[in-house]
C-alpha cells in the first residue's frame, strides 16, 4: 500500500511530532563567537581607496554600523561616516581580506577623495 502524498505543512508536523523540541541554552564554558576587541580611542581606520575592492567585509565587521560602501566613479569604496563614534577596535582592519585598512593614531580616513582613479 502506498502512503498518500504530503504537503509541506503535513510533513513538518510529522517531523516535529517525532522529535521533541528542546530550547537551546548557551553553554557557559563555550567562549563567545567573537571576543570583543578593546576600544582604542584616538585610533581610526584608514583605507587605501585605490586598492579597496568594495567587498563589504569591513562593513559587516563594524558593530556600530559606521562603515558603508559608497560608489565613486563606478567603483564601490568603503567609507567611514561618523569618526567621532569610532572606538578604534580595528575589527574592520582585521576582517579586510586584502589588508587595505590600517589603523592610524590621531585620525584616519576612509574617504574616496584620497584615491587616485584613472579612466582607461
UniProtKB/TrEMBL annotation:
Gene3D superfamilies: 3.30.70.20. SUPFAM superfamilies: 4Fe-4S ferredoxins (SSF54862). Residues 23-38 have a biased composition (Pro residues). Residues 19-41 are annotated as: Disordered. It holds the Pfam family Fer4_7. Keywords: Iron, Iron-sulfur, Metal-binding. Residues 43-72, 77-106 form the 4Fe-4S ferredoxin-type domain. This is 4Fe-4S dicluster domain-containing protein.
